[in-house]
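Predict the holo structure. Ligand: nicotinamide-adenine-dinucleotide.
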Amino acid sequence: MKLSVIGTGYVGLVTGTCFAEMGNQVTCIDIDEKKVEKMKEGKCPIYEPGLETMMVRNYEGGRLEFSTSYDSINSAAAVFMAVGTPSREDGSADLKYVYAALDQLVPLIQDGLIIVLKSTVPIGTGESVKEYLSGKTDKKYVVVNNPEFLKEGSAVEDFMKPERVIIGTDDDEAWKLMEELYAPFNRQVSRTIRMSNLSAEMTKYAANCFLATKISFMNEIARLCDRTGADVNEVRHGISTDSRIGAHFLYPGPGYGGSCFPKDVKALAYSAREHGMSLKLVETTEEVNAEQKFYMFNKMKEHFKDLNGKTIAIWGVAFKANTDDIRETPAIYTARALTEAGASVRFYDPVADDNFEVYCKENNLKAEKVENKYDALNDADALCVLTEWSEFRSPDFGEMKKRLKNPNLFDGRNLYKTKSVLEDGFTYYAVGKRI
Ligand code: NAD
């Protein structure tokens, strides 16, 4: 099938590459010329395990093309919109990139084209898009909502083996085509679920908000553990054995970040307000998370009393492991609070360090990038771990103690064994663990 994908970010490039991997002829379109050039040179513009190899294989095999031009759309069976939908100041989703892309594709619409909204868009957007386009073209097209559920860090695997594929459409022909397109990804059992455009949009927000709520819930339980002496790891184990609760998303930490949960939680709460109601749980999830992003900073402040003149090393600035994405990462909030309190900040991250360095320069945040995790500790007053990268899980504690001025360890991801780090002589703080 001939397909076009608009936007080659975490979702668009993975979508385009995986469809090409299944034998489709895909053109990935982006307005960012540098990105397109980079992809044509065989380099993946984002860090995503397994993506570059698959991208190059399909590019060299002639099934995947990259372009700044929209021309491929006029011979495509379907076009996937995967542009960003960031938050506005008031929390609503900003659809300017979606509508800018629609304006560009209008002249290329042919009868039968399926316009697939893969971006996360507010409930009612599919209908609004249909209406918007109806005033601009006489061609017959169908607007389908196909929200994406991949996770950064395992995006290729998630796309290749989806737990479910949501297709929002009331058009039988479009449903058939979408089912056919996704069939190779669901060979054992069909995981494609058909529903209305509105329900598909709501499903995406409901899923993300539910997961974010789980995180905020566990973060609050961890805070209470810190106050009472209960241990959140024991509690997590205790509750996760209940099959109604399950074992996933029960890990407390420095707050959720990334390009999805923060903006989607805000956007759903905003949508509800627009409909004259307040989603109290969703609003509170966001409030708890906003506080949680300062949890490790507050622990450092309590420990040092005065942070002025202290040097703090941060391990991990990506919002989670296995990604270079730093959007809304807890490291931004922690580093900013530390520098405002007069501390110097150094950071190390195996993948996201360059992105964080650029962020710091553009946003006047004074933090120094260090190329080696142990060098970051030299003469520092404390180490604060904010991302659960594998390479932080079993570090050389002897080396760490030698490098640090004072062996203070603030473990924002509960990576270390309490007994063992205490025996090694560290002053240890974590999230809800009994110390
Ligand atoms: P991104 O910011 O990584 O990528 C968006 C891309 O679109 C950029 O490369 C940008 O240059 C390009 N773009 C913007 N306007 C364009 C235009 N008019 N024409 C062509 N290209 C254009 O975004 P992302 O993280 O991939 O997210 C895309 C959407 O998918 C969002 O709605 C997001 O909420 C949703 N989503 C993201 C994830 C995720 O893990 N990142 C997961 C599921 C859903």
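The pocket of nicotinamide-adenine-dinucleotide is lined by residues 6-12, 29-32, 35, 82-85, 97, 100-101, 104, 119-120, 148, 150, 152, 259-260 (CB under 6 Å). The CA atoms of residues 99 and 129 lie 8 Å apart.
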